[in-house]
Amino acid sequence: MTQQCEISWFSALCDDDYEFLGQPDPMLASSWEHCRNIVLAAEKGGFDNILLPSGYQLGLDTTAFAAAIAALTSRIRLLMAVRIGESWPPQLARQIATLDRITANGSGQGRLTINIISSDLPGDKLASAPRYARTLEVMQILKTLLNGEHLSHHGEHYNIDVDPPRMTTVSGKCPPLYFGGLSEDAREAAARGCDVYLMWPDTMPAVREIISDMTARAAKHGRTLKFGYRAHVIVRETESEARAYAMHLLSKLDAETGDTIRAKSLDAASVGVARQAELRAVAGGEGFVEDNLWTGIGRARSGCGAAIVGDPDQVLAKLRAYQAEGIEAFILSGYPHAAEADLFARHVLPKLSHSALRVDSHYARH
Questions:
Q1: How far apart (Å, rounded) are the C-alpha atoms in residues 76 and 43?
Q2: How does residue 56 score in pLDDT terms, banded at 50, 70 and 90?
Q3: Contact 215/201 with Cβ under 8 angstroms?
């Protein structure tokens, strides 16, 4: 039996769309029209979900965009990024419930999923341990309220006693919470609070180690996790064409511009970003750290910094290798995003058995 997985694409709400990396293009700048068109193309192409990213200093407001695009789509799920440092959890719960209702569009099924970002309040700075502790509290608060339960929460960061909002999700349950992070604090928060643990590109042995570690951590809290993998992709009819396009993306980038772009990100000093830099450092001369995994993207981008590069069969084989290790959800992207979504939808997606990821949303009560 062919293993099922969720295949998501990426809408560049955070000023991250290029033909040449590091060279802003007015036609690809984050705007309602441009990002809307990426989502509609992904839905037409057959993707199951789409990540709506969030960056305080960059691009469009994610929640406002999600509300607008929900009314224009009918099938694709929306993976809305939520910056925890900028929200009051009970109000966030009501926003999520309202958005889930909008996504239903009369279908009787909500399409909202949530990407939890362990952010600071802009202008403020928390150390890693308290910041991730706050993020875990928010995940627990959201699950309690969105599961329709009375909240009596007395934690380090929140002291709240409140009934759930009248507005509920369509299912009456909290949507799946996707979350990632490599630090010790992040891993513990994920093990206790999220439903889908996301990782950035890494070598196959490292992917195997992370899944093993996170499975064991979650089990200590009586929980199980699903696993997701966020990567870029470049697929062409031949491997040589795919590699040539990778070089094309970097053809106008200089080191100083790349450094400036990476430094802009609020997570530029995170453990995950450091790991992406390590991969670039040990990669071969053309930037490949293992078969079909190219680290050149990270020269002009903080965060997810590698791409699966190859012909359709090679890309498919790489995805299936990740599936064999336990990955059940992929969040993919490529430059420019609308064009690469079309290439992946035509060359690879029909060969994959895929559908929206189903999770049992639960957590260890504290």
A1: 5
A2: confident
A3: no
φ and ψ at residue 80, rounded to 5 degrees: -85, 120
Residue tagged 């071969």 (tokens): 284
Task: Quickly tell me which residue has 């995940």 as its tokens.
Answer: 139
Strand partners, 9: 50
Could you identify the residue written with the tokens 């608060």?
A: 141
| 117-128: average pLDDT | 86
Confidence band, pLDDT 50/70/90 cuts, at residue 105: confident
Euclidean distance between CA atoms 67 and 37, whole angstroms: 15
**For the whole model, what pTM was predicted?**
0.93
Band (108; pLDDT cuts 50, 70, 90) = confident
Please name the residue that has the structure tokens 């009375």.
Answer: 150
Q: What is the largest CA-CA distance in the chain?
A: 60
Cis omega before residue 201 (within 30°)?
no
- How far apart CA 115 and CA 277 sit, in angstroms, is 23
Check residue 202 and give its pLDDT.
93
